[in-house]
Amino acid sequence: MKLLLTSALLAFSLAYAQTPADTAGWTKATTTHRLSEFPKIHTDGRLWFQFKAPDAKLVQLRIGATNKTYDMQKDKDGAWSIIIPPPGPGFQYYWFIVDGLIVMDPGSYTYYSNGIKTAVEAQAPGEDYYLTRNVPHGDIRQHLFYSKVTQSFRRMFIYTPPDYDTNLKTRYPVLYLQHGAGEDEAEWTSAGRAHLILDNLIAEKKAVPMIIVMNNGFASRPGETAASGPGVARNFSAFEQMLIQDVIPDIDAKFRTIPDRDHRAMAGLSMGGMQTFQIGLTHLDVFSHLGMFSGTPQGASKPLDDILAQGVALNKRLHVFWFGAGTTEERFINRQRELRGMFEKAGIKALYFESEGTAHEFQTWRRCLNQFAPLLFKTGR
Amino acid sequence: MKLLLTSALLAFSLAYAQTPADTAGWTKATTTHRLSEFPKIHTDGRLWFQFKAPDAKLVQLRIGATNKTYDMQKDKDGAWSIIIPPPGPGFQYYWFIVDGLIVMDPGSYTYYSNGIKTAVEAQAPGEDYYLTRNVPHGDIRQHLFYSKVTQSFRRMFIYTPPDYDTNLKTRYPVLYLQHGAGEDEAEWTSAGRAHLILDNLIAEKKAVPMIIVMNNGFASRPGETAASGPGVARNFSAFEQMLIQDVIPDIDAKFRTIPDRDHRAMAGLSMGGMQTFQIGLTHLDVFSHLGMFSGTPQGASKPLDDILAQGVALNKRLHVFWFGAGTTEERFINRQRELRGMFEKAGIKALYFESEGTAHEFQTWRRCLNQFAPLLFKTGR
């Protein structure tokens, strides 16, 4: 993706036009499906949306982590249009509001984020680590397994690195990677592009080849009220038991893993980060690398009290203890800085990453994974 | 799935109610996502839809291959509801029409069928061959490859049978399976459940373990106008070249295949069936089993003229030559019967399947795959 000189300010002055002054420089966004022409993206990063609703009185576009809202303009054929300045880097959820009714864009692919959402892949100048490059590519597998804890078949997504199917004598370390309260097991690859991030890191020899296992973070035992999304009580007990007793043994049996704690990591975004903190720290016999992406315990918690009490003793038990958050997601970045103070005072070694100018959104978590993955499995081998 | 005694007639008499007489017997449909309560399905097969649109004057439900349309009723909270009789067996696309505007149901998962569509999995009494049963399960892989023909990275979906990753000395035959003009490479598994159909057939020893390779059927060379959907000229030349020169060598290099014509099949639905007929019959050095699901050449075509001229000689070159269509998709079933007459007159052996009471829809194609797959790779070994 080319970094162009056209500034965001210039782009902003061109915004709000119903149709562009000229049609040069516009192509379909990568998130626009084959039977649609819109949304389009300009080489300067502007986005052009269109939605046909001849009888509507007002159609608005709402986009991004800050829910920025634009009034669209209707042409004589009943198509509502808007050209907007670059909405922020990378992956942006959006929808239309048609006379007050929220409607997903029929022109874009859908993703799972607190329900079905449309999204557009916006420019991110200087960030090409998640693009499909001419490098060897791993596979993403949809894998069914039976959980004795939930007493049901469940689906996980598994990334196997390039050459996994040809280097049949090689065994690999495993990163267990979790989504947030809004997503499901597909989103780390579909919205997060975890597979492409790893393909690129491995090709550049920045990260060691590894397997990534992505499960649905909602689990309940038969008879328990099923947790389903934001606002659910943060009871990870069934998920924890399932991960340790069902998932890891299934993966170690069916994939060529190195089945020990030195070669097992856990990370997650938002709720998945909270799960990583809680489950990872209470199972240091299972995991040795932990990554919390915009997901730290917000109040007191048992593992937090425990590790603060352990202090420097914890350092011998963790190869990587890593925290990342976006600088514009106030609650999360503030908590991360607060924890950093507590950990430093207690002598606990950790690493901290601040994603400049991003919020509680996938661009933050792509950057986190791109920073975190290269640190994994480089000690304790 | 239980076959209940409640008749469709009784169900019909209960339809059009805004809310059910009692709430017993209703559960979320399997296609309803975790943050939604609707659509619901009753044990007797009725479906209950709900959509919140307080300011709308009229909300309608449109569902199924025949586009049956129902007016919904608004309650005091602005939620529109409808309970409908069983809409037909299995997988049904549907949407809402809100004062004339087509809106997908935010409560259901989306699929790709001439754009993004919501769908509901309805009952299909007596059909359990595509359900998730307690049998060994294969994986579905998303696999990126570089096509020299299109000069781009492309994605395919690949089903590997149970034990593929543990029986490391076993090699497998391959079925190349194509979607129709409305779909993409994901739909044979997401809407079609091809992986579950094969898991069940393999568990019952009705089908031999095989790999299934599912590609996007739209391909164009750089500079060519990209074909994108229904109504496109039926020029399969770039796809044909890509399949033969890029896809098959990639699969034979990276998967444990038996790389000869006796162990290679091709099949497809609708446009994919037409591609199978054209590409398969002109590459009998590559394929020996061909399946056309609701997809036969509608007029004269080169391979059709050629095989009619060959007559009985063709029988030695094809292990399986198979046609299937639904009895209520008139154009396709009529053409299939017409071809049958022509083939029988020419002495060409083929097999014909008629899916009772289904149209140009996935339930027809699930049944086709369930009938076709057991016939594969049982001769010529």
Can you tell me about this structure?
The structure is a homodimer of 381-residue chains. Chain A has 381 residues and is of the alpha+beta class. Chain A contains 8 helices and 19 strands. The first copy, chain A, has helices at 8-13, 187-190, 194-203, 237-254, 271-282, 302-310, 330-346, 362-372, and strands at residues 26-28, 40-42, 47-52, 59-63, 68-71, 73-74, 79-84, 91-98, 101-103, 110-112, 116-121, 139-147, 152-160, 174-178, 211-215, 264-269, 289-293, 320-326, 351-355. In chain A, the strands form 3 sheets. Chain A has an 8-stranded mixed β-sheet with strand order 12-13-15-14-16-17-18-19, sandwiched between helices. In chain A, β8 and β9 (101-103) form a beta hairpin. The longest helix of chain A has 18 residues, at 237-254. Chain A is globular, with a radius of gyration of 22 Å. The first copy, chain A, starts with 7 loop residues before the first helix and ends in a 9-residue tail after the last helix. Mean pLDDT of chain A is 92; it is low at 1-17. Chains A and B meet through β9 and β12 of A and β9 and β12 of B.
